[in-house]
Amino acid sequence: TRAHTYHLINLTRPVPSVALITLNRPKALNALSSPLFDELNHVLKDVDADKEIGAVVITGSEKAFAAGADIKEMKDKQYSEVYGSNFLSHWTYITSVKKPIIAAVSGYALGGGCELALMCDIILASPTATFGQPEINLGVIPGAGGTQRLARTIGKSRTMELVLSGRNFSAAEAERWGVVSRVVGEGEGEVVKEAVALGEKIASKGKLATQAAKEAVNHAYEQTLTEGLHFERRLFHSLFATNDQKEGMAAFAEKRKPNFTHS
Ligand code: CO8
């Protein structure tokens, strides 16, 4: 992992078991250009394969985790080009990484920056973190999961409000709504220290169980409503194989209390 040279990110190992990836395009507030994402994907592939590493932390600067996709790169693109090339589809690679990924967010996490954080497994935020999906202000909508992941996390009404108005939301709101697991510290760099400490703790567990745990949580989270409803209905059907269903429904019809036998 050390041999490769990166220009738009930095890779360090604050402790042997944790890879710390720092987005490093300060002049553009870490706007997520295609070359930046190529580097990010490359390093993620490397750290995922490195047996010494048990967790990954992604962070930005104090001012910006990432201010979104690179608007200047996108602005003149035509429909035929973005659709034809499946523009930005390589953003999803991060969701296939097996190792736990913690986002340590300070400053702006807007648009694609917010979506990048939402693609990580855990988000820790500094009190300065500012989240938002301002794409509506640019005549577009979130394209890397913002509408879907926020809706699942904070519900329809809040997601609609944020996505339709484009307003930012604070670290405190993000914590209250469960977008982030915790708001951490006051001082500069605190959130990164805390994320590395959490990563080190996670890395001390068995790697197979960790991989399985991540897979299982994602499975629960990624079921579609259709699949969930189908699963629910099948379980409902299966209860007709129990005595308790016969007893419970008979008791209702006979206007008496049921005597369940748990069989
Ligand atoms: N893209 C390109 N450049 C950017 C971006 C960006 N997203 N954000 C900031 N910059 C640049 C600015 O243009 C400026 O450059 P320059 O110095 O050359 O003028 C530099 O960064 C500093 O920015 P500001 O001077 O604007 O700094 P301020 O402190 O005044 O403001 C803000 C900070 C509020 C964060 C402001 O920069 C801003 O509003 N940025 C844009 C935020 C935004 O709209 N993000 C959403 C982008 S769209 C998106 O992310 C869609 C994702 C879809 C993914 C689809 C996958 C299939």
UniProtKB/TrEMBL annotation:
It is an enzyme of class 4 (lyase). Its EC number is 4.2.1.17. SUPFAM superfamilies: ClpP/crotonase. InterPro entries: ClpP/crotonase-like_dom_sf, Enoyl-CoA_hyd/isom_CS, Enoyl-CoA_hydra/iso, Enoyl-CoA_hydra_C. GO terms for biological process: fatty acid beta-oxidation. Pfam families: ECH_1. It comes from the Eukaryota. Keywords: Fatty acid metabolism, Lipid metabolism, Lyase. GO terms for cellular component: mitochondrion. PROSITE patterns: ENOYL_COA_HYDRATASE. The keyword Lyase applies. GO terms for molecular function: enoyl-CoA hydratase activity. Belongs to the enoyl-CoA hydratase/isomerase family. This is Probable enoyl-CoA hydratase, mitochondrial. It comes from Botryobasidium botryosum (strain FD-172 SS1). The lineage of its organism: Eukaryota, Fungi, Dikarya, Basidiomycota, Agaricomycotina.
